Amino acid sequence: MALSGIEIFKLLPKTNCGDCGVPTCLAFAMSIAAGKTELEKCPHLTDEARTKLEEASTPPIKPVIIGNGERMVKIGGETVMFRHEKRFENPPPIALRVSDLLDETRIRHNFERFGSLRYERAGNQLKAEMLILKFDSGEAKRYLCLIKSALDNTDAAIALECFEPSVLEQALQLCASNRPLIYAATRDNVDTMLGFARKYNCPLAIKASDLEELAELSEHITASGFKDLVLDSGARTIRQAFKDQIAIRRSALDDKFRPLGFPSIVFPGEMAEDPLKETLYASILIAKYAGIVVLSALQGETLFPLLLERNSIFTDPQRPLATKEGIYEIGGPGKNSPVLITSNFSLTYFLLTGEIESSRVPSYLLVKDTEGLSIMTAWAAGKFSADNIARFIKKCGIEEKISHRKLIIPGYVNFESSGLEEELDGWEILIGPREAAHLPGYLKKWEAEQ
User: Which range, of 3-17, 68-82, 140-154, 228-242, averages the lowest pLDDT?
Assistant: First the structure.
């Protein structure tokens, strides 16, 4: 069980030095307990206190980092069985598995698709994040060329799927600075693989035939002090994989069974030959409770639904789904294009962008941060009124993009128009429609009158 703020405070130096960024040790302890800051920010902890706090504050599913820089993905860190209890922390990266048996043309095609299948959603970029590079050819040179090509042509975090020690070491010498995931330690090679993981400071996947063997392997490795692990239960049917994922999460969270307290990796591509069935299985395992989901191919029509599902599941259920504040250019607007403003409630954003696109009138849509509240709720809370809308208009930079000074506000807040004209000197405030469905006609009329 996580320590309370008072329990953490008892282990702190109690100097109230402020070096951690907060004025007192008690405030720092409360921030750690609430998950708002990190233990490392205190430079005065004793080694004994640090060890106790790190052990006690580690989530039941230990967080593991693969890669670094723009290639970094973080998995694990989960603390609940069900999303409504709190939230799920780290979305499982979607990985493409690429074999070194493929010819250069197909490898290049795979990497191009990996880079091109990216989608914008509520201000977030949705994409696959990992490559699993598989040694199948038996030729070290081909495998090293595959790794180099992945590093040169993608921004992916990578995993090295290789069971040949001499080839794996050459691969690690080539890419260890990118901190790849080593896949995988088994009962037969565990000490060799663990040696590589320690030597090159890389996370290690362990693969077993069942959960009992998986726990034994995990205990053997963690007893040596190494704890950057990813679990593969060996299940290659959806029925068994589903059962194993739930059992791993429940053992770690409910039973506090540390050997299974690590994120997992699943291979729906090995469970089905039909791409649609593989996608179905992947969607099940994203929800229950995979740490990494490995696909055999990337297709837009199957990847996009998985990314949307993941995005929806890994949002905080206690906070409205919100779009990032800023200027959104729809249809390639120019100096004379209309300017509209709305709240950052995601549903409102998606409705408006859809109607603006259907109007075929290039437009600027200004999205103001209202903490995810809808227009009328935000207005009632004082977050979408004339004064704060005006402040946003002045600082967002829209004045530099347009030659006119006309702002279209939602019809539901038409009573703010006079206040806005007072706050925004030189601007003309236009009242837009109340319903998004009426927006295309309104914009076409606006365009015709210009």
Answer: 3-17
For the chain, how many residues are written?
A: 450
- Using CA atoms, how far residue 369 sits from 268, 345, 387, in Å, is 39, 8, 14
pLDDT, greater one: 86 or 232? 232
At 394, list the tokens: 């002045």
Looking at the fold, whether 304 and 434 belong to one and the same domain comes out as no
Within a domain: 318: no
Predicted confidence at residue 150, as pLDDT, reads 97
Q: Is residue 128 part of a domain?
A: yes
What are the DSSP calls for 359-423, one per residue? HT--EEEEEE--TT--HHHHHHTTSSSHHHHHHHHHHHSGGGT-SS-EEEE-GGGGGGHHHHHHH
How far, CA to CA in Å, does 326 sit from each of 59, 172, 268, 341?
Answer: 35, 42, 38, 10
The SS3 assignment for 207 reads: strand
pLDDT in tens, 66-90: 999 999 999 999 989 998 888 899 9
Same domain, 258 and 397: no
pLDDT digits (tens, 9 = 90+) for 284-301: 999 999 999 999 999 999
Q: Is the pLDDT of residue 319 over 80?
A: no
User: Does residue 320 lie in a domain region?
Assistant: no
State the Cα–Cα distance between residues 315 and 36, nearest whole angstrom. Answer: 17
DSSP per-residue letters across 336-351: T--EEEEE-BHHHHHH
Q: Is 373 exposed, middle or buried (0-12, 13-18, 19+ CB in 10 A)?
A: buried
Q: Tell me, yes or no, whether 23 and 94 share the same domain.
A: no
Tell me, yes or no, whether 92 and 216 share the same domain: yes
18 found inside a domain: yes
Q: In this structure, which amino acid lies at residue 291?
A: G
Q: Which amino acid is residue 218, in one-letter code?
A: S
Same domain, 207 and 343: no
Using CA atoms, how far residue 58 sits from 69, 113, 152, 260, in Å, is 23, 37, 35, 14
Closest CA to 122 of 379, 320, 285: 320
The domain in which residue 16 lies consists of 5-57
Task: Write out pLDDT tens, residues 402-425.
Answer: 999 999 999 999 999 999 999 998
What is the predicted pLDDT for the residue at 372? 86
pLDDT of residue 315: 82
Domain final residue pick, 261, 292, 313: 313
Confidence of residue 320 (pLDDT cuts 50, 70, 90): low
427 pLDDT exceeds 80?
yes
Cα 317 → chain centroid: 15
Same structural domain, 76 and 195? yes
Torsion of the alpha carbons at 249, 225, 90 and 70, rounded to the nearest 10: -150
